[in-house]
Amino acid sequence: MATLRTIRLRIKGTKNIKQITRAMEAVSAVKMRKSQGVALAARPYATAALRMLHNLTTSQKASFSGDAQFNLLETRKVKTTLLVVVTSDKGLAGPFNTNVLKKAEGFIKSATGAVTIATVGKKATEYFTRRSRKPALSWTGFGDYVEVKEVEPLFDFVFQAFTDGQADEAYIVYTNFLSAMKQEVVIRKLLPFSEEGLLAMVQGIVPEKGRFADYNANTAKENANTANNEYLFEPSPKEIFDAILPALLKIQIYHAILEANASEHSSRMIAMRSATDNASELIKSYTVSMNKARQSAINKELAEITGGSEALAV
Protein backbone atom coordinates (compact mmCIF):
# COMPACT_ATOMS: atom_id res chain seq x y z
CA MET A 1 0.00 0.00 0.00
CA ALA A 2 1.21 3.50 -0.87
CA THR A 3 2.29 5.74 1.97
CA LEU A 4 0.22 8.70 3.15
CA ARG A 5 2.72 11.12 1.62
CA THR A 6 2.48 9.41 -1.78
CA ILE A 7 -1.32 9.43 -1.71
CA ARG A 8 -1.42 13.12 -0.77
CA LEU A 9 0.91 13.93 -3.67
CA ARG A 10 -1.34 11.99 -6.04
CA ILE A 11 -4.41 13.87 -4.81
CA LYS A 12 -2.65 17.20 -5.25
CA GLY A 13 -1.50 16.30 -8.77
CA THR A 14 -4.97 15.08 -9.78
CA LYS A 15 -6.57 18.29 -8.47
CA ASN A 16 -4.16 20.33 -10.59
CA ILE A 17 -5.07 18.27 -13.66
CA LYS A 18 -8.76 18.75 -12.88
CA GLN A 19 -8.34 22.52 -12.82
CA ILE A 20 -6.61 22.44 -16.20
CA THR A 21 -9.20 20.20 -17.86
CA ARG A 22 -12.06 22.30 -16.46
CA ALA A 23 -10.46 25.46 -17.87
CA MET A 24 -9.92 23.77 -21.26
CA GLU A 25 -13.55 22.66 -21.28
CA ALA A 26 -14.73 26.24 -20.70
CA VAL A 27 -12.44 27.65 -23.41
CA SER A 28 -13.55 25.00 -25.92
CA ALA A 29 -17.23 25.76 -25.19
CA VAL A 30 -16.70 29.46 -25.96
CA LYS A 31 -14.75 28.72 -29.15
CA MET A 32 -17.39 26.25 -30.29
CA ARG A 33 -20.15 28.84 -29.98
CA LYS A 34 -18.13 31.45 -31.83
CA SER A 35 -17.31 29.01 -34.65
CA GLN A 36 -21.02 28.22 -34.98
CA GLY A 37 -21.84 31.91 -35.14
CA VAL A 38 -19.30 32.54 -37.89
CA ALA A 39 -20.63 29.61 -39.95
CA LEU A 40 -24.22 30.78 -39.61
CA ALA A 41 -23.34 34.38 -40.44
CA ALA A 42 -22.05 33.25 -43.84
CA ARG A 43 -24.97 30.89 -44.52
CA PRO A 44 -27.34 33.45 -46.17
CA TYR A 45 -24.65 34.11 -48.78
CA ALA A 46 -24.29 30.39 -49.51
CA THR A 47 -28.08 29.96 -49.69
CA ALA A 48 -28.54 32.91 -52.06
CA ALA A 49 -25.68 31.74 -54.27
CA LEU A 50 -27.12 28.22 -54.43
CA ARG A 51 -30.57 29.62 -55.37
CA MET A 52 -29.03 31.76 -58.10
CA LEU A 53 -27.03 28.79 -59.40
CA HIS A 54 -30.26 26.77 -59.63
CA ASN A 55 -32.00 29.51 -61.61
CA LEU A 56 -29.04 29.92 -63.93
CA THR A 57 -28.55 26.24 -64.63
CA THR A 58 -32.24 25.58 -65.29
CA SER A 59 -32.74 28.58 -67.58
CA GLN A 60 -29.35 28.96 -69.29
CA LYS A 61 -27.79 25.49 -69.32
CA ALA A 62 -28.07 25.02 -73.07
CA SER A 63 -26.09 28.16 -73.87
CA PHE A 64 -23.18 27.02 -71.67
CA SER A 65 -22.63 23.59 -73.17
CA GLY A 66 -19.07 23.05 -74.31
CA ASP A 67 -17.79 26.27 -72.76
CA ALA A 68 -14.39 25.68 -71.16
CA GLN A 69 -15.17 28.21 -68.43
CA PHE A 70 -17.75 25.84 -66.97
CA ASN A 71 -15.48 22.89 -66.38
CA LEU A 72 -16.58 23.04 -62.75
CA LEU A 73 -19.89 21.52 -63.91
CA GLU A 74 -18.30 18.94 -66.21
CA THR A 75 -18.63 15.26 -65.36
CA ARG A 76 -15.67 13.21 -66.57
CA LYS A 77 -14.49 9.63 -66.48
CA VAL A 78 -12.76 9.35 -63.13
CA LYS A 79 -9.08 8.44 -63.29
CA THR A 80 -7.77 10.56 -60.40
CA THR A 81 -9.62 11.76 -57.33
CA LEU A 82 -8.49 14.59 -55.08
CA LEU A 83 -9.32 14.07 -51.41
CA VAL A 84 -8.97 16.92 -48.91
CA VAL A 85 -8.72 15.61 -45.34
CA VAL A 86 -9.52 18.10 -42.55
CA THR A 87 -8.23 17.39 -39.05
CA SER A 88 -6.89 19.52 -36.19
CA ASP A 89 -3.43 20.84 -35.41
CA LYS A 90 -3.73 19.89 -31.73
CA GLY A 91 -4.65 16.77 -29.83
CA LEU A 92 -6.74 16.20 -26.68
CA ALA A 93 -9.90 16.22 -28.78
CA GLY A 94 -11.18 12.72 -28.10
CA PRO A 95 -11.92 10.63 -31.22
CA PHE A 96 -12.17 13.71 -33.48
CA ASN A 97 -9.08 13.07 -35.61
CA THR A 98 -9.27 9.28 -35.48
CA ASN A 99 -12.79 9.23 -36.95
CA VAL A 100 -11.83 11.55 -39.82
CA LEU A 101 -8.75 9.52 -40.71
CA LYS A 102 -10.70 6.26 -40.54
CA LYS A 103 -13.31 7.70 -42.94
CA ALA A 104 -10.56 8.89 -45.29
CA GLU A 105 -8.93 5.44 -45.28
CA GLY A 106 -12.24 3.82 -46.16
CA PHE A 107 -12.74 6.24 -49.05
CA ILE A 108 -9.22 5.65 -50.39
CA LYS A 109 -9.65 1.86 -50.30
CA SER A 110 -12.98 2.01 -52.13
CA ALA A 111 -11.81 4.46 -54.81
CA THR A 112 -11.59 3.03 -58.33
CA GLY A 113 -8.73 5.22 -59.55
CA ALA A 114 -5.72 6.96 -58.06
CA VAL A 115 -6.28 9.23 -55.04
CA THR A 116 -4.31 12.41 -54.45
CA ILE A 117 -4.38 13.56 -50.84
CA ALA A 118 -4.27 17.12 -49.53
CA THR A 119 -4.41 17.70 -45.79
CA VAL A 120 -5.56 20.44 -43.44
CA GLY A 121 -4.17 20.10 -39.92
CA LYS A 122 -0.99 18.58 -38.51
CA LYS A 123 -2.64 15.35 -37.42
CA ALA A 124 -3.64 14.35 -40.96
CA THR A 125 -0.26 15.38 -42.38
CA GLU A 126 1.62 13.32 -39.79
CA TYR A 127 -0.72 10.34 -40.25
CA PHE A 128 -0.29 10.03 -44.02
CA THR A 129 3.41 10.90 -43.96
CA ARG A 130 4.08 8.07 -41.50
CA ARG A 131 2.34 5.69 -43.90
CA SER A 132 4.47 6.74 -46.87
CA ARG A 133 1.58 8.61 -48.51
CA LYS A 134 2.91 12.12 -48.27
CA PRO A 135 0.18 14.67 -49.13
CA ALA A 136 0.50 16.68 -52.32
CA LEU A 137 0.03 19.82 -50.23
CA SER A 138 -0.77 20.44 -46.58
CA TRP A 139 -1.94 23.42 -44.59
CA THR A 140 -1.75 24.13 -40.87
CA GLY A 141 -2.58 27.01 -38.59
CA PHE A 142 -6.09 27.77 -39.83
CA GLY A 143 -7.46 29.94 -37.03
CA ASP A 144 -10.30 29.10 -34.67
CA TYR A 145 -12.51 31.61 -36.48
CA VAL A 146 -11.37 31.27 -40.08
CA GLU A 147 -11.72 34.14 -42.51
CA VAL A 148 -12.45 33.47 -46.17
CA LYS A 149 -9.04 34.74 -47.25
CA GLU A 150 -7.37 32.08 -45.09
CA VAL A 151 -8.80 29.25 -47.22
CA GLU A 152 -7.77 30.82 -50.55
CA PRO A 153 -4.57 28.71 -50.90
CA LEU A 154 -6.65 25.55 -50.44
CA PHE A 155 -9.29 26.85 -52.85
CA ASP A 156 -6.68 27.71 -55.47
CA PHE A 157 -5.17 24.23 -55.24
CA VAL A 158 -8.52 22.42 -55.63
CA PHE A 159 -9.68 24.75 -58.41
CA GLN A 160 -6.43 24.44 -60.34
CA ALA A 161 -6.20 20.67 -59.95
CA PHE A 162 -9.68 20.19 -61.39
CA THR A 163 -9.52 22.74 -64.21
CA ASP A 164 -6.05 21.52 -65.30
CA GLY A 165 -7.24 17.92 -65.43
CA GLN A 166 -4.96 16.72 -62.62
CA ALA A 167 -8.08 15.52 -60.80
CA ASP A 168 -11.38 14.41 -62.35
CA GLU A 169 -13.32 14.91 -59.14
CA ALA A 170 -12.67 16.42 -55.73
CA TYR A 171 -13.98 15.46 -52.30
CA ILE A 172 -13.50 16.81 -48.80
CA VAL A 173 -13.77 14.75 -45.60
CA TYR A 174 -14.43 16.64 -42.40
CA THR A 175 -16.53 16.54 -39.24
CA ASN A 176 -19.97 18.10 -39.50
CA PHE A 177 -21.35 19.75 -36.36
CA LEU A 178 -24.79 18.35 -35.46
CA SER A 179 -24.97 19.40 -31.81
CA ALA A 180 -22.67 20.08 -28.88
CA MET A 181 -22.77 16.39 -28.02
CA LYS A 182 -22.87 14.91 -31.51
CA GLN A 183 -20.67 15.34 -34.57
CA GLU A 184 -20.63 13.32 -37.77
CA VAL A 185 -17.75 12.69 -40.16
CA VAL A 186 -18.97 13.32 -43.71
CA ILE A 187 -17.52 13.23 -47.21
CA ARG A 188 -18.79 15.99 -49.49
CA LYS A 189 -18.25 16.18 -53.22
CA LEU A 190 -16.67 19.52 -54.10
CA LEU A 191 -16.27 19.10 -57.87
CA PRO A 192 -17.88 18.73 -60.30
CA PHE A 193 -20.73 20.77 -58.83
CA SER A 194 -24.08 19.15 -58.17
CA GLU A 195 -27.16 20.82 -56.77
CA GLU A 196 -27.70 17.94 -54.35
CA GLY A 197 -24.20 18.25 -52.91
CA LEU A 198 -24.47 22.02 -52.52
CA LEU A 199 -27.89 21.71 -50.89
CA ALA A 200 -26.58 19.12 -48.42
CA MET A 201 -23.70 21.43 -47.55
CA VAL A 202 -25.98 24.43 -46.96
CA GLN A 203 -28.44 22.45 -44.86
CA GLY A 204 -25.62 20.86 -42.86
CA ILE A 205 -24.45 24.25 -41.62
CA VAL A 206 -27.32 24.45 -39.12
CA PRO A 207 -27.04 22.09 -36.11
CA GLU A 208 -29.82 19.67 -35.22
CA LYS A 209 -30.02 20.85 -31.61
CA GLY A 210 -29.01 23.86 -29.58
CA ARG A 211 -29.53 27.61 -29.75
CA PHE A 212 -29.27 27.74 -33.56
CA ALA A 213 -31.45 24.70 -34.31
CA ASP A 214 -34.54 26.70 -35.33
CA TYR A 215 -32.55 28.50 -38.04
CA ASN A 216 -33.40 25.88 -40.67
CA ALA A 217 -37.15 26.29 -40.24
CA ASN A 218 -36.96 30.06 -40.59
CA THR A 219 -34.73 30.04 -43.67
CA ALA A 220 -36.71 27.22 -45.29
CA LYS A 221 -39.79 29.47 -45.12
CA GLU A 222 -37.84 32.34 -46.68
CA ASN A 223 -36.51 30.07 -49.43
CA ALA A 224 -40.01 28.82 -50.21
CA ASN A 225 -41.20 32.39 -50.73
CA THR A 226 -38.41 33.13 -53.25
CA ALA A 227 -37.85 29.73 -54.85
CA ASN A 228 -39.94 30.51 -57.96
CA ASN A 229 -38.76 34.06 -58.54
CA GLU A 230 -37.52 34.96 -62.00
CA TYR A 231 -34.34 37.03 -62.32
CA LEU A 232 -33.09 39.47 -64.90
CA PHE A 233 -29.32 39.12 -64.99
CA GLU A 234 -27.03 42.07 -65.51
CA PRO A 235 -24.39 41.56 -66.82
CA SER A 236 -24.95 38.37 -68.81
CA PRO A 237 -25.58 34.99 -67.11
CA LYS A 238 -22.21 33.79 -68.45
CA GLU A 239 -20.35 36.56 -66.64
CA ILE A 240 -22.28 35.80 -63.47
CA PHE A 241 -21.33 32.14 -63.80
CA ASP A 242 -17.69 33.20 -64.10
CA ALA A 243 -17.96 34.72 -60.63
CA ILE A 244 -20.46 32.49 -58.87
CA LEU A 245 -18.95 29.06 -59.57
CA PRO A 246 -15.52 29.76 -58.02
CA ALA A 247 -17.25 31.66 -55.19
CA LEU A 248 -19.45 28.64 -54.46
CA LEU A 249 -16.42 26.35 -54.38
CA LYS A 250 -14.69 28.71 -51.98
CA ILE A 251 -17.72 28.94 -49.69
CA GLN A 252 -18.01 25.14 -49.66
CA ILE A 253 -14.41 24.79 -48.52
CA TYR A 254 -14.81 27.68 -46.09
CA HIS A 255 -17.84 26.14 -44.41
CA ALA A 256 -16.19 22.72 -44.21
CA ILE A 257 -13.31 24.29 -42.26
CA LEU A 258 -15.72 26.18 -39.99
CA GLU A 259 -17.74 23.04 -39.30
CA ALA A 260 -14.55 21.12 -38.56
CA ASN A 261 -13.43 23.85 -36.15
CA ALA A 262 -16.74 23.84 -34.29
CA SER A 263 -16.66 20.04 -34.12
CA GLU A 264 -13.07 20.05 -32.89
CA HIS A 265 -13.90 22.43 -30.04
CA SER A 266 -17.02 20.45 -29.20
CA SER A 267 -15.12 17.16 -29.17
CA ARG A 268 -12.39 18.69 -27.01
CA MET A 269 -15.01 20.13 -24.65
CA ILE A 270 -16.59 16.68 -24.21
CA ALA A 271 -13.17 15.03 -23.78
CA MET A 272 -12.13 17.59 -21.15
CA ARG A 273 -15.45 17.21 -19.34
CA SER A 274 -14.91 13.46 -19.25
CA ALA A 275 -11.35 14.00 -18.01
CA THR A 276 -12.63 16.35 -15.29
CA ASP A 277 -15.20 13.78 -14.18
CA ASN A 278 -12.55 11.06 -14.16
CA ALA A 279 -10.27 13.27 -12.09
CA SER A 280 -13.07 13.82 -9.57
CA GLU A 281 -13.64 10.08 -9.29
CA LEU A 282 -9.90 9.49 -8.93
CA ILE A 283 -9.67 12.09 -6.15
CA LYS A 284 -12.50 10.33 -4.31
CA SER A 285 -10.74 7.00 -4.70
CA TYR A 286 -7.43 8.45 -3.47
CA THR A 287 -9.20 10.11 -0.54
CA VAL A 288 -10.72 6.79 0.52
CA SER A 289 -7.30 5.12 0.22
CA MET A 290 -5.73 7.93 2.26
CA ASN A 291 -8.37 7.60 4.98
CA LYS A 292 -7.85 3.84 5.10
CA ALA A 293 -4.07 4.28 5.30
CA ARG A 294 -4.46 6.89 8.04
CA GLN A 295 -6.87 4.67 9.98
CA SER A 296 -4.48 1.77 9.58
CA ALA A 297 -1.62 3.88 10.94
CA ILE A 298 -3.75 5.04 13.91
CA ASN A 299 -4.81 1.46 14.68
CA LYS A 300 -1.19 0.36 14.52
CA GLU A 301 -0.11 3.10 16.94
CA LEU A 302 -2.98 2.27 19.30
CA ALA A 303 -2.02 -1.40 19.21
CA GLU A 304 1.60 -0.51 20.01
CA ILE A 305 0.55 1.75 22.89
CA THR A 306 -1.80 -0.87 24.26
CA GLY A 307 0.88 -3.59 23.96
CA GLY A 308 3.44 -1.40 25.70
CA SER A 309 1.01 -0.53 28.47
CA GLU A 310 0.24 -4.19 29.09
CA ALA A 311 3.94 -5.05 29.13
CA LEU A 312 4.61 -2.39 31.79
CA ALA A 313 1.69 -3.61 33.89
CA VAL A 314 3.18 -7.11 34.01
Feature tags:
five-stranded mixed sheet, alpha/beta, 62% helix, 12% strand, 314 residues, Pyruvate Kinase, Chain: A, domain 1
* Uncertain runs: 62-69
Series of secondary-structure elements, N-terminal to C-terminal: HEHEHEHEEHHH
CATH architectural category: 3-Layer(aba) Sandwich
**CATH class descriptor:** Alpha Beta
Total tally of structural domains = 1
Largest sheet properties: 5 strands, mixed
Verbal overview:
By secondary structure, the protein is α/β, with parallel strands linked by helices. The chain has one domain (21-270): Pyruvate Kinase, Chain: A, domain 1 (3-Layer(aba) Sandwich). It is built from seven helices and five strands, in the order αβαβαβαββααα. It has helices spanning 4-64, 96-110, 122-130, 152-163, 195-204, 215-226, 237-313, and strands at 80-86, 114-120, 137-139, 169-179, 182-191. It has a five-stranded mixed beta sheet, with helices on both faces. Mean pLDDT is 81; it is low at 62-69.
Question: Would you kindly provide a brief summary of this structure?
Answer:
With 314 residues, the chain is an alpha/beta fold. The chain contains 7 helices and 5 strands, in the order αβαβαβαββααα. Helix 3 (122-130) links the parallel strand 2 and strand 3.
Fold blueprint:
Blueprint: H1 4-64, E1 80-86, H2 96-110, E2 114-120, H3 122-130, E3 137-139, H4 152-163, E4 169-179, E5 182-191, H5 195-204, H6 215-226, H7 237-313
Parallel strand pairs: 1-2, 1-4, 2-3
Antiparallel strand pairs: 4-5
